[in-house]
Amino acid sequence: MYTLDIILPHIDHSKRLLPYPQARFSVLAYDTRKIRLGTDCLFFALVQQRDGHRYILDAYQKGVRSFVISDPDFDTRDYPDANFLWVNDTMRALQQLAAYHRSRFSIPVVGITGSNGKTIVKSWLHQLLSPEYKCYQSPKSYNSQLGVALSLWNLTAEHDLAIIEAGVSKIGEMDFLQQMIRPTFGIFTSLGTAHREGFNSKEEKFAEKWKLFAGVSPVIVPSSAIPEAYSSSSNCITWGGRPEDQLQFLGSSQDKDHTVLQLRYEKESFVIAAPFVDKASIDNVLTCILVMLTMGYAVDTIEQRVVLLRPLEMRLQLKKGKYNNSIIDDTYSNDFASLQIALDFLGQQNQSDVKKLILSDFEGEEWTTKTIDKFAQLLNVQSLSQVILVGERMEMLRSKLQMPSLLFKSTDELLNALADLGLKNCVLLLKGARKFELERVGRLLVEQSHDTILEINLKAIENNLSQYRSCLSKGVRMMAMVKAFSYGSGSFEVANVLQFNKLDYLTVAFVDEGAELRRAGISIPIMVLSPHEGTFEDILLYDLEPEIYSIRILRSFIAFLETRGITSYPVHLKLDTGMHRLGFMPDEIGPAVDIIRTSQRIKIVTAFSHLVGAGSRELGTFSTQQIQLFKQMVSQIELSIGYSVMKHICNTSGIVYHPEAHMDMVRLGIGLYGFDMAPNALNLEEVGTLKTTITQIKKIPKTETVGYDRKGVLQRDSIIATVKIGYADGYDRRLGNGIGEMSINGNIVTTVGNICMDMCMLDVTDIEAREGDEVLVFPDLNQAARNIGTIPYELLTGISSRVKRVYFYE
């Protein structure tokens, strides 16, 4: 807990207004949606894609009374009892405060960076070192400019070792991270292609990342990752296949589920069995082994602990439950920082007002009165209907809780009582330390699939939304398309993320889709495309806003509203400027506005049209003609009805290619899901990943054929894998017979024979593959679409509803 007068010398500021300089705070807030107890917060008005100054009133209304701002003209007269500190850059001020907090601890701090493996190595080291250390690790993948600051803020006097990861994507970023972390021990995991767009070369990227280790010794690093210019660095302790590596990798042998590593360290040879077979995991294990050896651990101890390592699920997963519930699975770790993150995600869910938590005991936490009070305060400010605690020590926490609670001494005891706990019709967060194996609870509560799943990255949706928002001028609104099951991604889950990120409008194709969103708690405006007379009742019932696209629908909807006595109902007028699909033609504007003007039943909220080829340079002239015609048609409408309406014509590609036509609002469609038919410089992330598994592997001689109609003709003796996806799952039959490509353990393989209803076959002759291996169905969705002469839209929307959607938030 700090007071403002204590931190003032440590934050560069130009002005301050502090009626209450003794105000205390323990939470650094930057997002008003996540504020639970405002009186404990110091709010930083970060200026990023969205200006945090716009949310100061919201924070104030939630109880915040201390603010760090950068707008010199911000009017504080409406906040007479609030403290204000003016700085040049609020992000730098936040980092300065985090650096000051870090400086108060003299414990060893391990700094981790690299292209891949940072979070895995950090989490495994936390597990490996926890028996001897009260070890703090930065939560999840909190390695950015903001994430590192927030990570360090959770460091307390109870910890005697900290492991902090740092990530950069361009030149200059590591300087700020290094000043905050100031590591005493370094780990460089790998040098790959991640974030390559921010650097001119691998050497430049390495140099930027290496800044974290200024003055640090030792630094653990694979020798293969070190550029020649750094190979003689005296602070490096390396592992690899060279004789001069301190940990020498002599070779390995693999069984079905583990790898035996043959190693040499300080002239002593030994073997360690690692419970992994993939190269990335083995590399991360070798890094961990060398860290432990450098810290003085005996080989026997390392061997006993490494064998207990498991692959980590590094993200929150949102899954559909069996009992009309939603399950948030976060069962790979449990500490204060990651619990905060998981509770924030639980708070975003609107599927049900009933929210419950199953929480295990914590790893690496000394169970003091101060610790118990900290966790109790965090839980008591949440809107939880019930907390179910697991672990013998949790009785002390239970006595401090203000909501209904239950206690089970073990996971087995919880499982025995699970059927009687009433976990139906709710949103349930499973949050547990790894040793409690709460994933066993999840398996009993989650709907099962046939091993083919579509993973939806909700964080990627937020990123893509932010990327397109950055293209807009101030005041331009955004509408997102969640029609067609959100391009196969799942309507509600996507809509919920968009609502949380304060999107202005949603659009659905059918009234049923809009009704489903309303029932699930989505409250922002929803436009419905192409309604018909049979849907008008539900449009009113669920507060949806119809697209009006013809004289017939216009008259029908007005007549319907007259029977209900409703006036000024919001509608959206669709204008046909060249697509010639739906919408009013130019010569229909006059008759349409005559009907609208003589009726008070509807109010036009927006008028919009659709560009035929927004991303096509060849169609640039036609797009310009469409835009001009649209403006003329809207001017005629506004002149006739006597008021202005919002105007929008730009779709995904139009946002980038036609900034002059953004007008009042833009419509984001396929771009939200990581695809844009037109090339652009945006850093989009693919949202959906379709995965399946290998069911069986067979050796087939070249004299045989594979699949229906003997279409799979073999040119050699082959090894054929059957995987659990077919055309009933949405895998297009045109992708058979070598046209389709999938990825197994990073290797591209092709289909063999015709695609079956529930399965298809792959040629795995040239790769290592095992039954049960994961298969990435579309390693390159754009290429798959090109191979069969279609577009990514078709492949995405074609993924069957029987394919289980698993949502995660990194």
UniProtKB/TrEMBL annotation:
<dbReference type="GO" id="GO:0030170">
    <property type="term" value="F:pyridoxal phosphate binding"/>
</dbReference>
<dbReference type="InterPro" id="IPR013221">
    <property type="entry name" value="Mur_ligase_cen"/>
</dbReference>
<comment type="similarity">
    <text>Belongs to the alanine racemase family.</text>
</comment>
<dbReference type="GO" id="GO:0030632">
    <property type="term" value="P:D-alanine biosynthetic process"/>
</dbReference>
<dbReference type="GO" id="GO:0016881">
    <property type="term" value="F:acid-amino acid ligase activity"/>
</dbReference>
<keyword id="KW-0663">Pyridoxal phosphate</keyword>
<feature type="domain" description="Alanine racemase C-terminal">
    <location>
        <begin position="687"/>
        <end position="808"/>
    </location>
</feature>
<dbReference type="InterPro" id="IPR029066">
    <property type="entry name" value="PLP-binding_barrel"/>
</dbReference>
<dbReference type="Pfam" id="PF01168">
    <property type="entry name" value="Ala_racemase_N"/>
</dbReference>
<dbReference type="InterPro" id="IPR036565">
    <property type="entry name" value="Mur-like_cat_sf"/>
</dbReference>
<protein>
    <recommendedName>
        <fullName>Alanine racemase</fullName>
        <ecNumber>5.1.1.1</ecNumber>
    </recommendedName>
</protein>
<feature type="modified residue" description="N6-(pyridoxal phosphate)lysine">
    <location>
        <position position="483"/>
    </location>
</feature>
<feature type="binding site">
    <location>
        <position position="581"/>
    </location>
    <ligand>
        <name>substrate</name>
    </ligand>
</feature>
<dbReference type="Pfam" id="PF00842">
    <property type="entry name" value="Ala_racemase_C"/>
</dbReference>
<dbReference type="InterPro" id="IPR009006">
    <property type="entry name" value="Ala_racemase/Decarboxylase_C"/>
</dbReference>
<dbReference type="InterPro" id="IPR001608">
    <property type="entry name" value="Ala_racemase_N"/>
</dbReference>
<feature type="binding site">
    <location>
        <position position="757"/>
    </location>
    <ligand>
        <name>substrate</name>
    </ligand>
</feature>
<dbReference type="GO" id="GO:0008784">
    <property type="term" value="F:alanine racemase activity"/>
</dbReference>
<comment type="function">
    <text>Catalyzes the interconversion of L-alanine and D-alanine. May also act on other amino acids.</text>
</comment>
<dbReference type="GO" id="GO:0005829">
    <property type="term" value="C:cytosol"/>
</dbReference>
<dbReference type="InterPro" id="IPR036615">
    <property type="entry name" value="Mur_ligase_C_dom_sf"/>
</dbReference>
<dbReference type="InterPro" id="IPR000821">
    <property type="entry name" value="Ala_racemase"/>
</dbReference>
<comment type="pathway">
    <text>Amino-acid biosynthesis; D-alanine biosynthesis; D-alanine from L-alanine: step 1/1.</text>
</comment>
<feature type="active site" description="Proton acceptor; specific for D-alanine">
    <location>
        <position position="483"/>
    </location>
</feature>
<dbReference type="Pfam" id="PF08245">
    <property type="entry name" value="Mur_ligase_M"/>
</dbReference>
<feature type="active site" description="Proton acceptor; specific for L-alanine">
    <location>
        <position position="708"/>
    </location>
</feature>
<dbReference type="GO" id="GO:0005524">
    <property type="term" value="F:ATP binding"/>
</dbReference>
<dbReference type="InterPro" id="IPR035911">
    <property type="entry name" value="MurE/MurF_N"/>
</dbReference>
<dbReference type="InterPro" id="IPR011079">
    <property type="entry name" value="Ala_racemase_C"/>
</dbReference>
<keyword id="KW-0413">Isomerase</keyword>
